[in-house]
Amino acid sequence: MNTELDAITIAESKERADLERDIDLGKKTFIKVGLALARIRDARLYRNDYTSFEKYAEARFGFKRSYAYQLIESAGVAVEVSAIADIQNEGTARALAKVAPTRRAEVLQKAVDAGPVTAKAILEAATPPPDKSAEFLAACGNPPFSTIKAEPNVTEFYHALETFIRGAFQDATDKQLVSMGVYAAMIPKLIKAELQRRKDSK
Length: 202
What we know:
single chain
């Protein structure tokens, strides 16, 4: 850590003053505040008065280190996803910041489609659905695959599976049919897991 103060140029001093004004006047607008803090930190515009950004943020604005960095991160996330939705609430941006960067766009879009974008909506959109494969299998019953030969060809297996599904449809209640439709999307996942299991067991 640098323990000595460094001079800043007149231009930097003016830029810092402008950014500080944005922070003072825009504390209700977390994006502007976060971006201003990020600029001051990255350009070290505090260096003529303070030896670290953390000391500067707390002395000048009363921001603890964790909160200052939280504002910076939340503002960055809000800007990152601005093409999908405008996030004006810091709590919402903070919730989205906890989501893996590769999933943020997907999660935010789900929250947008579900209704008002709130921290709770982000959390719900980011939470994977519960594994209800057992319920799906219970609704379908046990497939009669024991009647298939040990090494069936694809056509034989397909027809056996189709026969089973049609039979399950006829015997199922309306509620069970809905369950089948919802959880049918899990079949590729189950197949992938079984293939991986077989590969690992070799």
